[in-house]
Amino acid sequence: MTRMTAPLRYIPTNIITGFLGVGKTTAIMHLLQHKPAGQRWAVLVNEFGEIGVDAGLVQGQLSEESGVYVREVPGGCMCCAAGLPMQVGLNHLLTRSRPDRLLIEPTGLGHPKEVLHVLSSLYREVLDVQQILTLVDARHLSDQRYTNHDTFNQQIAIADRVIGNKSERYQPEDKQRLQRYVQQNGRATASVLFATNGQLDTSVLDRTAASPVAAGNDSAIHHHTHAHPEQSVLAADTPLPACGYLKAENHGEGYCSVGWRFKADRIFRHDRLFGVLSGIEAERVKAFFLTEKGVFGYNMASGTLTETRLQDCAESRIEIIGRTLDETWEAQLLQCLAS
Q1: Which residue among 33, 114, 142, 259 sits deepest, i.e. has the most Cβ atoms within 10 Å of its Cβ?
Q2: Per-residue pLDDT at 108 exceeds 50
Q3: Is 28 exposed, middle or buried (0-12, 13-18, 19+ CB in 10 A)?
Q4: How many Cβ atoms sit within 10 Å of the Cβ of residue 272?
Q5: What pTM did the predictor assign?
Q6: Which band of pLDDT confidence, cut at 50, 70 and 90, is reported for residue 221?
Q7: Within 13 Å, how many C-alpha atoms sit on residue 201's CB side?
Q8: Could you give the CA distance from residue 241 to residue 48 in angstroms, rounded to a whole number?
């Protein structure tokens, strides 16, 4: 019996969660780059926005030839609608990749308890849910917009390991504040670790002797609503119109998102594009663009924009998440197009 024909049974699985801009994708990229040689790892990525950017950022740096397989579930929390979007995406990913390990990244505005419930109830013999990691920027613990947000606290409550990411920017009291917050709001067995720039050792994924086996708990499920588009085809998969680009919006949990897709023949001016992206005021910006200087990925959180050269992308995409949206963003992006 070969890998491609053997039953899918008890695949080591990790949920990696955290609020907007905390560095989940960066941490996952670091883990993928340091996975054991010869292993196949799969990543199921959920995005709040309709366009879908994260998979392109990962695949632009790590290909399937390197043993990394990625599937996106855009358009809000993937556990909504009885988990159907999640099931379709996960089934396709597992069948295609036959992985040695699965990483699941819910959107920063998603509900990890419900994601865990779907996994526990429908994939009990297929997946072995091991460590649940929650990344936190401890500097946000002094901001009530985070500490009063149900999703933020749910991410803390469900974690086996809470990772204080971006710790190189902390004041000494930030680490102590995070440890106290986890003691008050987290599992009794949860541990607190600290990381810089998402640099995690792959050993954090393995279940320890003290770690309980994650299980679904109906009493813990928080029923919620998101604004979902009525169309059967998501904006991430819709054929692009004759004008060469498509726009899509989403909102929920106190946040809004807007994103655009551009045809591959729309080439952007690199220097002008970087200037426009640097000036966007939002909670989160993720993008990849075809420019006259090559293909680049962009990531902005906490007002800091980073740029990464990518191997390739099929089209240009950008997603912006904030508490409010700016109607001038589209015109600014279009002005970056090369004539």
Answers
A1: 259
A2: yes
A3: buried
A4: 16
A5: 0.84
A6: very low
A7: 5
A8: 23
